[in-house]
Design brief:
mainly alpha; 2 domains; about 45% helix; about 0% strand; elongated
Length: about 120
C-alpha cells in the first residue's frame, strides 16, 4: 500500500476517533463544566445599563445589543440622546440623563428599577 492510500485512510478515520472521546472532545465541551455562581465579567451595574439601553432603543437611539455592557456604542447613543434633549453632553449616566430617560438607579447598585 503506498503512502497516499495510508494518508487517505488516516484522514477518513481521524474524525471518528476524536468524536468518540469524553466530554473534552465531544461537540459540546462546555457541558462538562458547571455553571459559575457569578459570571466572570459580573458588573453590579449591568441591570441599570440594560434598562438604559432599552429606553434608548425605545426612543430611537441605537445603543447596540441590550447586554448590560456600557460600551462605546451605548455611550455614543447616550451622548446623542443628551444632545437631542439639551442635557450637557457627558456620555455618562448622570442624574439629569436618567431622569429624562425615566430610569431610576434603585436602592442597590445595578438594580436598574424603572419608573412606572
Amino acid at each position: 500500500m503506498d503512502w497516499r492510500a495510508l494518508a487517505a485512510v488516516a484522514l477518513l478515520v481521524a474524525p471518528a476517533l476524536t468524536l468518540s472521546g469524553g466530554p473534552f472532545t465531544s461537540l459540546h465541551p462546555e457541558e462538562a463544566y458547571p455553571d459559575p455562581e457569578v459570571p466572570a465579567d459580573f458588573d453590579p451595574y449591568s441591570g441599570l445599563v440594560s434598562d438604559v439601553q432599552r429606553k434608548l432603543r425605545a426612543r430611537g437611539f441605537d445603543p447596540g445589543p441590550v447586554n448590560g455592557d456600557f460600551g462605546s456604542k451605548t455611550q455614543a447613543a447616550l451622548a446623542q440622546f443628551q444632545l437631542y434633549h439639551l442635557i450637557p453632553v457627558s456620555g455618562s449616566l448622570d442624574d439629569a440623563t436618567l431622569a429624562e430617560l425615566g430610569v431610576e438607579r434603585g436602592e442597590q447598585a445595578g438594580t436598574g428599577a424603572t419608573r412606572p
